[in-house]
Design goal:
heterodimer; A: MetI-like fold; two-stranded antiparallel sheet; 14 helices; disordered N terminus; B: mainly alpha; globular
Chain lengths: 300, 271
């Protein structure tokens, strides 16, 4: 996904500027137009309208956006989303890198551990949250039982304003850690062996080898992982909806849950569409900033 | 060397911690509800039972949801493979007016999150009265640009002289695509297929919004619907049996194919 910019089409085949050639791309382009381009344009239009339960729409310009920025609950969902990204993305990136560095070996035990760390990734969010609610449940949950066994009072993590979001972050890390690990493993295998042999000849320490050879060689993947994870975690929804319903006291309500409830519980489609455009803009800006940083480093 | 052994020990410990929640849920699913109501710690002793699973099989809805998930996931996978292969071939190896601009537009589509389009999509399907149908669950997934991007990259990497030689022999573009090039892209098809299937099987947002009729729930949404009334459930053990039942097929498939799945995920991002 990070190679997007490097992929402007290759040199042309000679003498084949035939319109029939476009028939190969036509089926996809049709679906792309109907399912993505038109809904995107409609969504932008909707965000400037006010629609009611009966589906009548009225153009209101930027009123929805003005209202959003004065809406304390929306602003809190924005803050919550940022907090969640900060709780998960740095950890996912660094822990993913650490796991990859330790597990990048041929031995069988390393393969077994890799399998374990990636396994949770194939589960759906509903199964993951079902499992983790049973971990956090104070009365009979895994942590509760453990606390009691140790003679402590169980904590109701998901009902605690301060602890609910960290609990969702832990759940998310458990669910998502496999992807960064695998991406880093793939990158590590592409570092030329010769570099390590040269470092060994120079008697370079493990630390020097890591910081001078390994990390510079996988820099692109490092930024790729951050971009992918920021985009993914900005879209937090299922975990919050299924574990806390955004509570307690909106402490875990993310932007996407706000969009969902505004759109499909209150049927304020215009207002929900406006919130969706704000999220879209935030994701774009975050991706662009990261892309800028990563390409600047590349030049240096 | 000692430091490296410490790192390995820490990673092994983390792996055990990764497994504990799954083992806990599995153990709970084998306990009678009455026992769990009294004391969840009874997991460690006492009687185990398969009653929760029996109750699950008595509930026909789960099978309907699995069938729905299979139809949707297989349909989306087939659709994505066909559309993305055709488009990838077209963008990578053929020339036509506007090709480069169209390709850049498709790539820009990669940056659009589902939230930005989902409200309008929902309205479109409402106007067409198509909600609670398989096409409604499958079609939006076919528009994702990722497959086209992947296949274009892959087709581009195949040497050009193959098509030129075949063209001189009088083969049509479609014959070249179908007979010569498509067989060469099987690794990429497998990657894209695994990706699409996993994504479709685990998707939650769109099926939650589009399928409101219980019979059209996918497994993910079905499990969520019973999870909602966690407090007044038929019992923890039953819910846990459901978690095991919904999660186990993916885990088993993963254990069998993990080498390919991991390679696919790594390879797709590395391109």
């Amino acid at each position: 996904m990070a190679t997007i910019v490097a992929s402007v089409p290759a040199p042309k085949l000679r003498g084949s500027g035939d319109w029939r050639n476009a028939l190969f791309v036509a089926p996809y382009l049709f679906v792309f137009l109907v399912m993505l381009v038109i809904p995107l344009a409609m969504g932008m239009w909707l965000s400037t309208t006010k629609s009611d339960l009966f589906g009548t729409e009225r153009w209101v310009g930027l009123a929805n956006f003005v209202r959003l920025f004065g809406d304390a609950i929306f602003l809190q969902t924005v803050a919550n989303t940022f907090i969640f990204v900060l709780l998960t993305v740095p950890f996912l990136t660094l822990a993913g890198l650490g796991l990859a560095l330790v597990l990048n070996r041929q031995e069988r035990w390393a393969a077994v551990l890799r399998t374990i760390f990636f396994a949770s990734t194939v589960l759906s969010v509903t199964v993951v949250t079902l499992v983790w609610r049973l971990v956090f449940l104070p009365d009979g949950g895994l942590l509760g039982v453990t606390a009691e066994a140790l003679g402590k009072t169980p904590i109701a993590f998901l009902n605690d304003e301060k602890l609910a979001m960290p609990a969702i972050a832990v759940t998310t890390i458990w669910w998502c850690i496999g992807l960064p690990m695998v991406l880093f493993l793939a990158a590590l295998q592409q570092v030329p062996r010769g570099l390590y042999e040269a470092a060994a000849l120079d008697n370079a320490s493990r630390w020097t080898t890591l910081t001078r050879i390994t990390l510079p060689a996988i820099r692109r993947t490092f930024f790729l992982v951050i971009i992918i994870e920021v985009i993914l975690q900005f879209q937090l929804f299922g975990q919050a909806q299924l574990m806390t319903l955004g509570g307690p006291n909106n402490a875990t309500r993310p932007i996407v849950l706000f969009i969902y409830e505004t759109g499909w519980r209150q049927w304020e489609l215009g207002y929900a569409a406006a919130a969706a455009q704000v999220l879209f803009a935030m994701i774009l800006i975050a991706a662009m900033i990261q892309y800028r940083i990563s390409s600047r480093r590349e030049v240096a | 060397m000692r430091r490296s052994r410490l790192a390995v020990a820490l990673v092994a410990l983390a792996a055990v911690l990764m497994l504990v929640p799954l083992l806990w849920v599995f153990a709970l699913s084998l306990k009678a509800n009455s026992e769990l109501m009294a004391d969840t710690a009874s997991v460690f002793n006492g009687r185990y039972t398969l009653d929760n699973y029996r109750n699950l099989f008595g509930n026909g809805a789960v099978f309907r949801w699995i069938l729905n998930s299979l139809i949707v996931s297989l349909g989306m996978t087939a659709g994505v493979l066909v559309l993305a292969s055709l488009a990838g071939y077209g963008f990578a190896r053929l020339e036509f007016r506007g090709r480069d601009v169209l390709f850049v537009v498709v790539l820009l589509g990669l940056a659009v999150p589902e939230q930005a389009v989902i409200i309008a999509r929902h309205q479109m399907f409402s106007w067409l009265s198509m909600h609670n149908s398989y096409p409604a669950l499958i079609l939006p997934g076919l528009s994702a640009p990722f497959g086209v991007f992947l296949m274009t990259q892959y087709f581009r990497a195949i040497p050009k002289d193959i098509d030129e030689a075949a063209l001189l022999d009088g083969a049509s573009r479609f014959t070249i695509f179908w007979r010569l090039l498509l067989p060469l892209t099987i690794p990429a098809q497998a990657t894209l297929g695994i990706f699409t299937f996993l994504h479709a099987w685990n998707d939650y947002w769109w099926p939650l919004i589009s399928a409101t009729n219980k019979d059209m729930f996918t497994l993910t949404v079905g499990v969520a619907s019973t999870q909602m009334n966690f407090a007044q459930t038929e019992g923890l053990g039953f819910l846990m049996a459901q978690a095991v039942f919904a999660g186990a097929p993916m885990l088993i498939v993963y254990l069998f194919f993990q080498k390919y799945i991991v390679q696919a995920v790594a390879g797709a991002a590395g391109r």
